[in-house]
Amino acid sequence: MDMQPAPAPLVTDRRRRLILFFFLMTAMFMATLDNQIVSTALPTIVGEFGHLERFGWIGSAYLLALSAVMPLYGKLGDLFGRKYVMMTAIAIFTIGSAVCGFAVSMNTLIAARVLQGLGGGGIMVSIFAVNADLFEPRERARYQSYSSLVLMASGAIGPVLGGTMSDLFGWRSIFLVNVPIGFIVLTGLAFMLPYRKPHRRPKIDYAGALLIALTTTSIVLATDSSELFGSLISPQSIGIVAFGAVCAVTWVFVERRAPEPIVPLQLFRNSTFSLLLLISVMGGAIAIGMVNYLALFLQTTTGLSPSAAGLLFILLTGGLVCGSLSAGRIISMTGRYKPFAIASLTCSAIAFALMSQVHAGTPIAFIGAIMMLHGIGIGLAQQVPIIGVQNAAPARDVGAATGSVTLSRMGGASIAISIYGAIIASGLGKVGAPIPGVVDIEQLTPKMMAALPEASRQAVADVYAAAFSPLFMTSCAIALIGLAAAMTLKPVQLPRSGEMKRPQSAAAEAAE
User: Fold this and answer.
1) Which of 25, 66, 191, 251 could disulfide-link to 211, CB 3.0 to 4.6 Å?
2) 493: which DSSP letter?
3) In which band, very low, low, confident or very high, does the pLDDT at 449 lie, cut at 50, 70 and 90?
4) Contact (Cβ atoms closer than 8 angstroms) between residue 392 and residue 507
5) Is 95's pLDDT higher than 70?
6) Are 345 and 478 a contacting pair, CB within 8 Å?
7) Per-residue confidence at 501, pLDDT binned at 50, 70, 90?
8) What number of other Cβ atoms are within 10 A of residue 300's Cβ?
9) pLDDT > 90 fraction of the chain, expressed in percent and rounded
10) What is the 3-state secondary structure (H, E, C) of 269-295?
11) Alpha helix (H) ranges present in 81-105?
12) Which residues pair with 336 in a beta bridge?
């Protein structure tokens, strides 16, 4: 294989590069914000459309579509050039946002969220690839750190912005605001980003990408089958499980023979890779998967408005930022990441155990402190799976290994959202005596709940608190499974930059 020198940056003018980088970060903020911004508006959406049992699908559909297409977009960019692949992704996302804003039913909204996800996945992948074309390696590292700040900012601002916009302009505004932003970004990239024709013709593992997406979707549908088909062991549910199993087995056979597999199977021979993937699945379930349900919990059991509930998320994100920054600094000094995986999942397990005991009259300050503890937990291990697999994988498979972590995190979130939705729907289905002034508890918006008499409001809060208790215990159990995997990790020390080449083979040997 001939070694080619690294290509020159795509744009030489520094000012133009910075403007392009601003457009890229705007697109990234829009795509990552969209899972967070919707969280505090969801109870209002459910109040308008009903179908609380499909509440989780508004988040799950977006994440599933996003994770299903992420492996493909990177290679499509290699094949057709980054510019037009990136612009196509932004266009799909913008059209999806417009359809969400004009949705006429819960099913329309879920379908539009799938369309949004198909674009969002492309935005997330293409941005890092375009950055690689714009900046030289040393300069790129600095700009990639700004990307991390944008990701954190979207987590902090999303719930507050979603709640405030929902209160002021109605929930549809949180989707429609993406349309002018998407159009501006598209115009900017069309005129300012040069097109570089790719020299390489990579072999794209379309079959592997499709099979892994179908397997994940089957698991999500199976976990949601009690709501979709009325029973976990209905004929349709058993059919979906069987279909998922066939897809998983076929995927293994396809990946063994693919020239450039989506996930090289030899990575699984390394126990560190397998354990970090499990930690990533559990991390996605308790971090990303829980966002929408925490927002629903705050608005139904404490009576907070969407914007006030969004403000509490600042505590969670503040904890996340503190945990992430301190962990990043200490890992870079010591080279050890295992202690942070253990500390992270311990914090989250304790937070959810405490949350399961919260009742309708619990002080807001106490709930805020628990959310901050959970945020610190998420932050401590946010970088661990990626750092760990990049160190454990051979140099040629680092990209695939990193993609596998992202995929497993999103897959874990999608599956957990369905499980959480089934638990809540089951809990609310056990409501005993009717509550005065409440025709259908599932169609209560936060504004309607605030207008109820005190006794009725308290009764609704008690019903929701009882429904959420088993959900938080489930999250605690998920965190404990992740903790068990973290404790089993080998105490690896990351090599220093001068030692990077030599330990690759040593890491592979240690894995055996």
Assistant:
1) 251
2) B
3) low
4) yes
5) yes
6) no
7) very low
8) 25
9) 9
10) HCHHHHHHHHHHHHHHHHCCCCHHHHH
11) 82-101
12) 493
**CA atoms of 28 and 78, how far apart (whole Å):** 20
**Averaged confidence pLDDT in the chain:** 76
The pLDDT of residue 436 is: 61
Instruction: Give the integer Cα–Cα distance in Å for 243 and 204.
Output: 24
8-state DSSP, 171: T
| Residue 27 · residue 90 · CB < 8 Å | yes
Structure tokens at 250: 């076929």
- The 3-state DSSP class for residue 336 equals strand
Angle, CA 170 vertex, CA 165 and CA 176 arms, to 5°? 75
For residues 406 and 281, the answer to whether their CB atoms sit within 8 Å is no
Tokens representing 93?
Answer: 């996302």
Q: Dig out the tokens for 272 from the structure.
A: 């560190």
CA–CA distance, 223 with 419 (Å, rounded to integer): 6
Whole-angstrom distance, CA of residue 208 vs CA of residue 258 = 8
**50 token code pair:** 């009903």
State pLDDT tens for residues 58-86: 777 787 787 777 777 766 776 677 778 88
Q: Inform me whether the pLDDT recorded for 3 exceeds 60.
A: no
| Distance, CA of 386 to CA of 273 (rounded, Å) | 10
Contact between 481 and 367 (Cβ < 8 Å): no
The tokens describing 98, both together, are 């417009």
Q: Output DSSP code: residue 499.
A: G
499 touches 507 (CB < 8 A)? no
- What would the mean pLDDT of 140-149 be, rounded to a whole number? 58
> What span, in angstroms and rounded, lies between the C-alpha atoms of 123 and 443?
34
The token pair at 277 is 């993937």
* DSSP, residue by residue, 224-248: THHHHTSSTTSHHHHHHHHHHHHHH
Please say whether the dihedral angle defined by the alpha carbons of residues 152, 424, 41 and 58, taken in this order, is positive or negative.
Answer: positive
